[in-house]
Amino acid sequence: MDRLCYLSDFFEAIGTDPRISITHIGVYAALLQYRLQKGFTNPIQVFSHEIMSIAKLSSAITYHKCVKELSNYGYIRYEPSFNRTKGSKIYFTERSD
After folding, report:
1. pTM of the model
2. Can you give the pLDDT at residue 93?
3. Which domain of life, per UniProt (predicted)?
4. N or C: less crowded end of the chain, CB within 10 Å?
């Protein structure tokens, strides 16, 4: 599958979703960029500060709120680790072509 399809599919899905803000879009795009940097694995294991840096966010509260909402809305699956030495897991939905 073309890696750009994940971003295209996301934009198609959010087109009629009024809950999604520019911050959600930035966090999702940052997660995709991080995934690309890590060899396009699924899931990715992340620390909030890594994604916040890519997304240009300065607030951990905003990051966690957006990631939880993206998960609740079904765009990703988020599994927090609650362990400072082990990153949280982010799963992307794999589509079959």
Report:
1. 0.91
2. 81
3. Bacteria
4. C
